[in-house]
Amino acid sequence: MQLLIQSGDLGPKWFHVALRALVLMAEQKSMVKSNQLADAIGEDPTFVRKILAKLAKEELVKTFGGRYGGYVLEKDPHSITVLHVYQALSSSDMIPHWSLPSTGSELFISLIISKAEERFQSTLADYTIADILLHKTEPRHPTKPEK
């Protein structure tokens, strides 16, 4: 989870890339190549494929290998919550409070972080890929600086 989130931030790169790719796949309703997704999102195709591989492992997307392969949603966009995506891609490399030299504050800090994470995940559970698709707006293209 980001330490500071400002209005308009998309969160960690892996998270917003995954959500945007899933929305694009839901919109297409047919197989999409990773290069097409990467181009639309503006990311490196290898990075997109790594994310899609994790989503496939969690059975959120289905992969078809080979020259004519690609990716499709494995589940209905109404049944894929943003929390599913977050949990599929989040690492569990948390530091247990008892593993650090004690200053006396570790337990309370861990309680604060746990409570914040619970609230964060609760909010993510309220939204689906279909919700994001429903609220999608026209893409904004960067404007060229005026001379």
UniProtKB/TrEMBL annotation:
GO terms for cellular component: cytosol. This is Rrf2 family protein. GO terms for molecular function: DNA-binding transcription factor activity. PANTHER family: HTH-TYPE TRANSCRIPTIONAL REGULATOR YWGB-RELATED, WINGED HELIX-TURN-HELIX TRANSCRIPTIONAL REGULATOR, RRF2 FAMILY. InterPro entries: Tscrpt_reg_Rrf2, WH-like_DNA-bd_sf, WH_DNA-bd_sf. Transmembrane segments: none annotated. It comes from Brevibacillus centrosporus. Signal peptide: none annotated. SUPFAM superfamilies: Winged helix' DNA-binding domain (SSF46785).
